Amino acid sequence: MTDYIESLQVLAEKFASLQGVGKKSAMRMAFSVLELDEDSAKEFADAIVEAKTKIHRCPICGNLTDKDECYVCSDLSRDTSVICVVEDVKALMSIEKVREYKGVYHVLHGAISPVNGVTPDKLTMKELIERVGQNEISEVIIATNPTQSGEVTAMYISKYLKPLGVKVTRLAYGIPVGSDLEYADEITLGRAIEGRRDV
Is residue 199 pLDDT above 70, yes or no? Predict the structure, then answer.
């Protein structure tokens, strides 16, 4: 039926083009938009345009912001000598939710993956190295994902930062709380053992 309603099909296709949205979800979203009254639909469209127009990368860390600097970089209470390196803004937001980390960030906007055509020059590696070299940085925490691309990225960063005399650490990945050891894979168990601490 929807094949005959071209504008609905186009709307669903636009939603489906978003990362993580499947065809069925996209069609549900399209129908949800149709259920909005005209004013609400216009507000929805305006919100998309405004976000796309106003939001940009922070010139210091690469986080997203609609101000000159992001809320982290403009927070004077933050410890600017400690930088946490993340792959994307979603990872930054996840760490912020914990409310334990008081340093600043550097967003790479991806991870090294030659198979997918993502080389170091396509990330903000150069900016990170310059930032560490030009400022008094005591520690760089590498918080890339525990994937093959994340591990390659972490090794690359470490290789270029250690000669600068800065302490380079990696997030400890291990057993989730509430899970059984028998169900953990070898890599997770290995990470848990490496990341062990005093009790």
Answer: no
Q: Give pTM, 2 decimals.
A: 0.84
Mean pLDDT for the chain overall: 91
Class of domain 77-194: alpha beta
Domain boundaries, the chain: 2-54, 77-194
CA-to-CA separations, 69 to 74, 91, 130, in angstroms, rounded: 6, 19, 18
Residue 118: beta bridge partners?
113
3-class state of residue 85 by DSSP: strand
DSSP state letter for 182: G
Q: What distance, in Å, lies between the first and last C-alpha atoms of the chain?
A: 63
DSSP one-letter code for 68 = S
Tell me the Cα Rg of the chain. 21
